[in-house]
Write a structure and sequence with these properties.
The chain is of the alpha+beta class and 426 residues long. It has a domain at 6-213 and 311-357: Sandwich (Jelly Rolls), CATH 2.60.120. Helices cover 22% and strands 29% of the residues. It has helices at 6-16, 203-206, 262-265, 343-407, 415-425; strands at residues 24-28, 39-40, 52-56, 69-73, 77-89, 96-104, 110-112, 115-119, 137-144, 147-155, 161-162, 176-183, 188-193, 196-202, 214-216, 231-233, 248-250, 272-274, 286-288, 300-302, 318-327, 332-340. The protein is flat, with a radius of gyration of 39 Å.
Length: 426
């Protein structure tokens, strides 16, 4: 169920749930000191497949300093970098908000743009943080070919990474977008894009946390005399005597061509055409089956393996945040990462960062694209002019040759010498 608007966001936060405590566990705006907090992973480094992050606002932005983030570079690399929360985050009885901005400035065709929240138990694995490092939440856009979706994967208490079953399309343009994931302690969730609710619902519907409460009785079988055919052929229906007709007949309007030679062409036969009287294969009409008992339904029993869990939202203590990505085409800029239990603050933070810059950023991108289009048209015009000049030059040379030929000024090389030799012989 997709719901639009901030009203639902605020109403769930302030009415359906207890008041937020208001603890910010991470607020990363990527200022000049960002390298003091973020650690690159050694994963893929020995294989020379580890990419690097560049501190930049890109070629278009709302503010040249405030909009600086970390940009993936170069192409075809794995990108892994991580940092610690200010203190361990235990989300029992609390909202969990994970929010960050993504700008696919490279017009991405294949690459991840998601972020991960990792548990305290992954501490020893963080220096080599990579694809196999256990995480608790993986959230954000993923674009590759026809795949253009937002991940919201949760790891359950058994260590299973549970995919997000609803479909949330990812933004595919070259502007900055804010992605927000909210996990509520009443086992519901919200996904916001650009501070507007895109999807919400229960965790039980969105993920396969629980086995089904009931299953089909493995000992039950359909009775052998069960009739589940709703209709049967009418036994009283009889095929009409004139039903059987050939599918094709000789064309009665065809005649032997006048130039037909029996000795050379053989005996002439009229071509065959579809028979208008042909009715196809006869089938008796269908009637309701008087013995029909309906569709047999497999009886259900309680699932002996079912285990209820009234706190599927509850994650292990969280301590780390990181990006673990593969990008064929680099150039994505990440910024303004927020981990908090305050839903309202997250909304204000998004407006303060992304909201304050989005209009100017779009204006600058439009100007960049307009300048590129202008330059392209100028280059096309110059190329066409050069080609025309080359064609005109060829035409001028051809005209000069024609003039020389008309005036008898064409040099035929050794023709005079040949003429002298011929005269000497004579």
């Amino acid at each position: 169920m997709a719901v639009n608007g901030k009203l639902l966001l605020l109403s769930i936060a302030t009415i359906a749930l207890p008041c937020a405590i208001g603890k910010v566990h991470l607020e990363e705006r990527f200022d000049e000191s960002w390298t003091e907090r973020w650690q690159p992973s050694t994963w893929k480094a020995e294989e020379n497949l580890a990419g690097k992050f560049e501190h930049t606002a890109g070629d278009w932005y709302g503010h040249p300093e405030a909009d600086k983030g970390i940009k993936t570079t170069p192409d075809a690399r794995f990108y892994t970098i991580w940092t610690e929360l200010e203190e361990e985050f235990v989300n029992k009885g609390k909202d969990l908000v994970l929010q960050f901005s993504v700008k696919h400035a490279q017009n991405i065709d294949c690459g991840g743009g998601y972020i991960k929240l990792l548990p305290t138990s992954s501490k020893d694995k963080m220096p080599d943080f990579g694809g196999d490092t256990p995480y608790s939440v993986m959230f954000g856009p993923d674009i590759c070919g026809s795949t253009k979706k937002v991940h919201a994967i949760l790891t359950d208490k058994k260590g299973r990474n549970l995919e997000f079953k609803p479909t949330v399309p990812a933004k595919t343009d070259e502007l900055t977008h804010v992605y927000t994931y909210i996990l509520h302690p009443n086992n519901t969730y919200q996904i916001l894009i650009d501070n507007e609710v895109d999807r919400n619902g229960t965790l039980y519907e969105a993920h396969d946390f629980l086995l089904p409460r009931q299953i089909q009785d493995p000992d039950a079988k359909k009775p052998e005399d069960w009739v589940d055919e709703a209709q049967i052929p009418d036994p009283a229906d009889v095929k009409p005597d004139d039903w059987e007709q050939p599918e094709t007949i000789l064309d009665p309007e065809a005649s032997q061509p006048e130039d037909w030679d029996v000795e050379e062409d053989g005996e002439w036969e009229a071509p065959r055409i579809p028979n208008p009287a042909y009715k196809g294969e006869w089938q008796p009409k269908m009637i309701d089956n008087p013995a029909y008992k309906g569709e047999w339904e497999h009886p259900l029993i309680d699932n002996p393996e079912f285990e209820d869990d009234e706190e599927v939202y509850l994650l292990p203590p969280l301590k780390f945040v990181g990006f673990e990505l593969w990008q064929v085409k680099s150039g994505t800029i990440f910024d303004n990462i927020l981990v908090t239990d305050d839903v309202e603050y997250a909304a204000r933070f998004a407006e303060e960062t992304w909201g304050a810059s989005k209009d100017k950023e779009k204006e600058m991108l439009d100007a960049v694209r307009a300048e590129e289009e202008k330059k392209r048209k100028e280059e096309d015009a110059a190329a066409k002019a050069a080609a025309k000049d080359a064609d005109d030059g060829d035409d001028d040379n051809d005209d000069e040759a024609d003039d020389d030929a008309a005036e008898g000024n064409i040099d035929f090389g050794d023709e005079d010498e040949d003429d002298e030799g011929l005269h000497a012989e004579l």
